Structure formats: structure tokens, C-alpha cells
Amino acid sequence: MTTNDRIEHEEEVTRRNFLYVATGVVGAVGVASAAWPLVDQMNPSADVLALSSVEVDLSAIPKGQTVKILWRGKPVFIRHRTADEITRAVSENTADLKDPENDELRAERPEWLIMIGVCTHLGCVPLDQRGDFGGWFCPCHGSHYDISGRIRKGPAPRNLEVPKYAFLNDTTVKIG
Amino acid sequence: MGSSSYEPKSKAAKWFEERLPILGLIHGTLGAGYNAPRNLNYWWNFGSLAGFMLVVQIVTGIILVMHYTPHVDMAFRSVEHIMRDVNYGWLLRYSHANGASMFFVVVYIHILRGMYFGSYKSPCEVLWFLGLVIYLLMMATGFMGYVLPWGQMSFWGATVITNLFGAFDFYDGMGESILHLLWGGFSVDNPTLQRFFSLHFLLPFVLVGVVILHIWALHLPGSNNPLGIDAKGPGDKIPFHPYYTAKDAFGLSFFIVIFAAFIFYMPNIMGHPDNYIEANPMVTPAHIVPEWYYLPFYTILKALPDKLLGVIAMFASILIFFVLPWLDGSKIRSAKFRPATAFFFWLFLVNALFLGYLGTKSPDEILINIGGGLDALTLGRISTVFYFSYFFVIVPLVSRMETTKPVPTSIAQSVLDARKEG
After folding, report:
1. Per the CB < 8 Å rule, is B282 touching A43?
2. Rounded CA gap, B179 and B165, in Å?
3. Which of A70, A75, A90, B29 is 20 to 30 A (C-alpha) from B113?
């Protein structure tokens, strides 16, 4: 008792203080390292990550049509745009946009618009060729996208996401 | 909890009690050892009804697990298997599905009763918190349970609700990392279904634990009552058993009739027909609606034009209940003696129901035809503003400024007065 009291009164860093802190720190690091696997197991597993790209044959998609394919459990829209649609998409680059992005950046080849068909609001699948801007319309909470997939009206914060893709040749695209 | 007044009648009970005093604990908590105010009305039945529903959900749930398969390829079929092939499977599933709704009905009434009679006020704040924790756990459990049948509404409800957490996008890619962690993939898929199943099984038992804490916290100050004054002398109280066990049992028998009416005559009225279509990630149903018990909060989410603000407002609309004990500055608990408080309470309730109604509507649907027409979005915004101003403006001001009615000196006295007036 008396030794303890004296130590507290003197308020100096003792061997015992050091041992308390060191033990606590080692304990905390140990608990955190043990907890990490319990959290990280929730992240996508190796087999989910492995299924991360698909190849699509574009020759079967006529002008003015959209095809929906499944990639990573989500729909991807591939639209073969008409000349008229491309003109519209480019001319609206200067329109008042919530998430400004030029059409050239959204479509590597202007006739092929490839984007993830998931509304950036809360993840519904927008409907093709509906809404006030001649593009896509999300029925869940009323977001309108234009023919470049840019958000124009409604609660969605961002444009429809463009996935990573590469044209292997003129009729094949690899998504992912 | 606990009671020193318990005296075991048999020798065996006495032997056991000396070694583990659990009989005395039960006696003092739900038996004759707990003295409750003598004037509890039928609004005080809903706590025990909620306890009953928790037991029903756990029992039917554990049996359903014996026949259900938590895998995207088999979940939907296994639910149909329960409905068509398992003996009384339809009864178990309908009881469980409607039981969730019934559980929320009684809990909502229980919470509203607490609001009206000031049951959250000192010294019952922690009791109130524990109740809110129970409610939040119920919301999480109910949501995950709705995903398990893997129908269209299951899938798209899960997609919309999990995406809420993507709003916390404070640095590039943060929202996405949160979502991938929640889903265990790039979208709601098999890993999501399996973890929801695991948690849907676990959380009800966590609920049982919190319910025990809730009852413990209740028994320290004792139950509130319609007059909102402290029960003092023996004239103010009666033993829980047999008086309130009998009253609860009577209320329970009435409640079971209503519960049974839903199970046997309108088992799907609370559900959505789209959930009898198997989940399809390529097609969103035209109209995604959450279960009815989330609807008011869903309207608040939709009312704000910004995604993050919408999500924050939605969570805030529930978490605000935690500070209610301090927003309300009145010295009197019961709204019986606070006419303005009572008036605004009923207005709050009507507004909450209206928010729920709006939750079922598309934002651009015209509901009131005056002027250019008021659409669901505009009305939702007005309602949301009222919802928050109730907590931030009305309750703090009214509770401190209103002229209250005289409060009786004791529960016994008020009973005698009422008898005199005849």
C-alpha cells in the first residue's frame, strides 16, 4: 500500500508504468491481428475475384440496340449507338451536368457505349430508352440518364459507371 | 430484478434455491414478488406481447432452418418446398413471416405508449436506450430475414439497403470497399445470402440478451403508469402475479385471434407478390417497396435530393429517439396532464403514418390535386420537415412552456377521486 502511494505521488515514470503500457500495447496489437481475419473473410473470396472478365461478340448487336450481359453479378449495358445518338451525346457535353464528363471519355469508340447497368443511387437496373433524356431511367427512385449514361435528373450522384474494357478486334470486346 | 421476499414452498425448491437463486429471480421479476403500479391500462400489455412474439419467431425460425437451404441456387426452391411439401410448413412459414409484422406492430405500439406516457424520462433513460437497441436489432434481423427466400424483392431490397452504406464515400473508392466487404463480392450474391442467414440466426438470441437487460433496467425504478407519477406506498401497487399475468394473458388471447386471422385468412397481405418470383440480378422490379415497417424511414431517405444526406437523415430519424429524454424538458411524465404535448403527439403519429403511406408511392405520383398538383416527393419533404421539427422544435419548446393540468398526489388518491366522481 505505502509503496504504491509513494509511486503515485511522485508521478515519475517507473519500471511498472512502462510494463503496464507495453503489455497493453502488445495486447491491443494481438487482439487487432486476431480480429483482422474475422473481418477480412467478408471481402470477396479468391474464386469470386477470379471470375472477373468476359468477352462479348459485338457483331450480333444491331445499331440502335442495347444488350445486357452479366459481369461480376451485375448487368453491363452494351449499346450500339446510331449516328444521331452520338451527335446528341457529344452536343450535350456542354449541358448543365451534375457529374460533368465528356462523351469521348465515356466511349472509347463512339458507336459502342459500354457501362455498368447499375444505378449509382441505390443499385437498381435502369430501364433502356426511357426517361426525359432519351437514355436510361431508374424506376426505383426516378433517376434519369442521357444517351451517354450521364446523370441528368433525380437522386443518383454519379454517371453510370464505365467498366474497364478493351477491343480485342472490331467485333470482340473484353470487359474487366 | 431479484427479490429477497421469495420463500420456496417445497423442500426441493428450497434446496435448489440455496444453490442457485433463480426461482427467486423469476418470482421477483415476473411473479408475485414484483409489485407494479395498480393502474396499468391495456397499453401496458404490449411489452409482454413483444416478448411472446420474440419467442414465436425463435421457435418457428429454428424449425424453418431445418428445411431451408441458404444457397442462391436452392434458397427459393427450399422455401417453396417448405410451403408445399413439409408437413405444416405453410403454417410455420406464414407464422414466421406474419409474425415479423406482428412483432413490429406490438413494438411500435409499445414505443408510442412510452412516448405518450413519458416512460423514457428520468430515471428510465437507459431502459429507453435498451428498447431502442432492441428495435434497431429487430430492423436488422427483419431485413436479413426478408432476403432469405431469395425472391425478387429479397434481392432488390438487399441491393438497395446495402447500397445505402456506399453513401459513406469519403475518399475515392471507400464506398465501394464498404460494399464489397458487405457483399463478399461485386454485388448481392451467394456470399451475401449466407452471411445474412448466419446473422439472421444469431441476432434473435442477442435480442433475448438485450430483452433481459431491458427488463432488469425496468425493475430498478419499476414500471411507469398512465399517471406518470411514482408509485410510492403499498396502496399504489399490486403484485405482478396474479394481477398482471392474468391481464397479460387476457390481452394475449385477444392478440392471438388477430395474429391467427392474418395467418389463416390473409397470409400474403403484408408481403409483395414479386417475392414469389425468383431473384434475377438482370431485372429490377418496376417498383421496389420495403416491408411496411420500414416505410416511413424509406420516405425520409427519398425526400432528400442528395444520397449521403438522405442516408444520414434516415439513420438520424431513428437515432433521434436516443436524445428524446433530454429534448423533453417537462417535469411531468404523462401526456395526460400535458394537453399540448398530447396534441402534438397525435399529430406526430398521423404524420408518421402518412410518411409510411408515401413510402409506397413513386416520387412523381400526384397525390393531391391542388394547384399544379402535389406529388409524393413534395409531400414527403413536407412530412420529413415536420418529423424532425417535432423533435428539434416542438418537443423542446412545448415541454418547457405549456400549462399543465394538476397532477394527483398518489395513484391510490386518483383511484379514490375517480370513484367519488362516479
Report:
1. no
2. 7
3. B29
